[in-house]
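Hi all, a correction to my earlier message: I attached the wrong file for Alpha/beta hydrolase. Here's the right sequence:
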Amino acid sequence: MGRGSQPQRTLRLSGYIQGSTSKAITVPTLVMHGEDDQVVPIDNSARTAVRLLKDGTLKTYPGFSHGMLTVNADVLNRDLLAFVRGAA
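and the right structure:
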């Protein structure tokens, strides 16, 4: 199979940050992930992405699924705005 570890392959497949790209991102970055996401496992995506980022923050959401951006937009938008304002 292709190059890289399983978490890196999962990141590429799910559209998350790749190893070389993560080094280029130097601004604070919020990674949001539903803990009940059955499509993209949190350990192979969000937790790995935050570890690869220079200044990454992981915010997880118990019970939120892969569709959380649509279903839980009110909560996510509030948290995103707080992060941008420096309050997260």
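Sorry for the mix-up. The longest strand covers residues 29-34.
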